[in-house]
């Protein structure tokens, strides 16, 4: 939902940057890789060190590469299979880094195994959400439905994690992760139901 409503807004903001990057010879693939590296830095380096606010700032900054590389590809007329494959594959690495970083911190010096466990659950369910759509599309079905798509998951966890680093009670982050896990379960069920409906219609 957030993806669809925010796409036009962020496209208008980042199009000048995308044009400039293309002008100086930067490729969309390079932006994708650099953005993923930045997210991994924030997730697997800053989070485990306890820098929850700055980790979230770094991850959010580099996450916008997802918008920029797509604009660049469209400007070049290259929005094809390879770019989509690379982007989706590296998105999984980025998501894993974010939740793994939280897990490491809260199972170690963060001293809150409940939050660490909730982060692991969110990581697993988030991967299933993404896999369900990818598998459906590989079979010729559509499954881009659900209340917890990637943009919603990332926006909520980054915001609350960052605020936790500024002093927000950790229980708020725990509650957010639990709600996110439940929303992911609902999304998985929604996508399964959507694909089943399409499959039954073919029978």
TrEMBL record:
Its main location: membrane. Pfam families: CDP-OH_P_transf (PF01066). This is Phosphatidylinositol phosphate synthase. Its cofactor is Mg(2+). Homodimer. NCBIfam families: PIPSynth. Mg(2+) 1 binds at residues 66, 69, 87. Mg(2+) 2 binds at residues 66, 87, 91. Catalyzes the conjugation of the 1'-hydroxyl group of D-myo-inositol-3-phosphate (also named L-myo-inositol-1-phosphate) with a lipid tail of cytidine diphosphate diacylglycerol (CDP-DAG), forming phosphatidylinositol phosphate (PIP) and CMP. PIP is a precursor of phosphatidylinositol (PI) which is an essential lipid required for cell wall formation. A CDP-1,2-diacyl-sn-glycerol binds at residues 29-32, 70, 74. Keywords: Cell membrane, Lipid biosynthesis, Lipid metabolism, Magnesium, Membrane, Metal-binding, Phospholipid biosynthesis, Phospholipid metabolism, Transferase, Transmembrane, Transmembrane helix.
């Amino acid at each position: 939902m957030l993806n669809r409503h925010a796409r036009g807004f962020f496209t208008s903001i980042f199009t000048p940057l995308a044009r400039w990057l293309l002008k100086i010879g930067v490729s969309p693939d390079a932006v994708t890789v650099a953005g993923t590296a930045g997210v991994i830095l924030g997730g697997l380096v800053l989070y485990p060190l306890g820098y929850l606010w700055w980790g979230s700032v770094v991850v959010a900054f580099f996450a916008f590469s997802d918008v920029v590389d797509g604009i660049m590809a469209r400007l070049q007329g290259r929005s094809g299979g390879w770019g989509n494959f690379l982007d989706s594959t590296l998105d999984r690495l980025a998501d894993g880094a974010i939740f793994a970083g939280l897990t490491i911190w809260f199972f170690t010096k963060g001293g809150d195994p409940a939050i660490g466990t909730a982060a692991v659950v969110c990581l697993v369910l988030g991967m299933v959400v993404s896999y369900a759509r990818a598998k459906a599309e590989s079979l010729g079905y559509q499954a881009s439905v659900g209340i917890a798509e990637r943009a919603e998951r990332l926006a909520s966890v980054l915001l609350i994690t960052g605020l936790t680093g500024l002093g927000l009670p950790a229980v708020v982050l725990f509650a957010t992760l639990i709600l996110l896990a439940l929303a992911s379960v609902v999304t998985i069920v929604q996508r399964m139901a959507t694909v089943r409906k399409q499959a039954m219609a073919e029978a």
